[in-house]
């Protein structure tokens, strides 16, 4: 088993000879839930690429863990970087998509209010849903032992998604219908570095108007395979395919 990961706000200034206090919800999870004991291995991260691997010196109260780090791993900026624009699924399938994409290795997630989305984020409900997505990415990042967690952006409109696609080095809209000229993502020519942006539509599909706007921005339609995946799983499958093809999984 690899060492469990806990998150702190910052690792600025942490180095040989430092002592790290883990408190609050993270400390409570370590002390009261995981019941870590002195001498056990742990990894502390800021979720932005920096880590501190060490041993537990003490666990006190319900939420106070003291760690002595001895290694300081760094997870470099990924290249090429993979962003998935995820149309809002129904119910808790949005959190499922965020969780599995994070575990797989996606670098950024952009919630998208597509025209055919049944779910729409508005007002306090939207803020709560976004907070759930971000909390899910954080927990999945810890669970998968990542040091650099994916960014979950504010919900984007279709025009904002088009602007994001226009800036990408490779832009793709996952589309299962061959009538739209979709090509296999497995054979697409990919950049060796830069930004890859994938658009995953809602259960009802990307509308012709949205697809036309995305094509104007430079995105092409691609398909994954013979089977049609749900919106909550398509992004994970596409991310895995691209991580393998770009060499990030080599």
- Could you tell me the number of beta strands? 12
The poorly predicted ranges are: none
Calculate the terminal CA-CA distance, rounded to whole Å: 22 Å
The shape, in one word, is elongated
Mean pLDDT: 94
Helix/strand structural class: alpha/beta
Describe this structure as you would to a colleague:
This protein has 6 helices and 12 strands. It is α/β, with parallel strands linked by helices and 250 residues long. A 7-stranded parallel beta sheet has the order 8-7-6-11-9-12-10, with helices on both faces. Strand 7, helix 3 (123-143) and strand 8 form a beta-alpha-beta unit. Helix 2 runs parallel beside helix 3 and helix 4 (158-166) packs parallel to helix 5 (208-216). The two termini are 22 Å apart. Residues 23-69 form the Ribosomal RNA small subunit methyltransferase E PUA-like domain. Keywords: Cytoplasm, Methyltransferase, rRNA processing, S-adenosyl-L-methionine, Transferase. Its main location: cytoplasm. It catalyses: uridine(1498) in 16S rRNA + S-adenosyl-L-methionine = N(3)-methyluridine(1498) in 16S rRNA + S-adenosyl-L-homocysteine + H(+).
């Amino acid at each position: 088993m690899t060492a469990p990961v806990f998150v702190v706000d910052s690792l600025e200034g942490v180095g040989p000879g430092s002592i790290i206090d883990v408190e609050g919800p993270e400390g409570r999870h370590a002390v009261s839930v995981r019941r870590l004991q002195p001498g056990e291995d742990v990894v502390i991260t800021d979720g932005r690429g920096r880590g501190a691997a060490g041993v537990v010196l003490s666990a006190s109260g319900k939420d106070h863990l003291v760690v002595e780090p001895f290694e300081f791993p760094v997870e470099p900026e990924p290249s090429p970087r993979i962003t998935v624009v995820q149309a809002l699924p129904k119910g808790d399938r949005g959190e499922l998509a965020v969780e599995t994409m994070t575990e797989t290795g996606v670098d950024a997630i952009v919630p998208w209010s597509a025209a055919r989305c049944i779910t729409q984020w508005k007002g306090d409900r939207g803020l709560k849903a976004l907070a759930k997505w971000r909390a899910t990415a954080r927990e999945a990042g810890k669970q998968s032992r990542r040091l650099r967690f994916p960014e979950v952006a504010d919900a984007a409109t279709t025009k904002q998604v088009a602007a994001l696609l226009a800036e990408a080095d490779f832009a793709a809209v996952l589309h299962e219908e061959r009538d739209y000229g979709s090509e296999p993502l497995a054979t697409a020519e990919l950049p060796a570095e830069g930004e890859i942006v994938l658009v995953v539509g809602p259960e009802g599909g990307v509308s012709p108007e949205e697809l036309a706007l995305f094509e104007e921005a430079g995105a092409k339609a691609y398909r994954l395979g013979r089977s049609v995946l749900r919106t909550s799983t398509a992004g994970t499958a596409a991310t895995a395919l691209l991580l393998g093809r770009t060499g990030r999984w080599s």
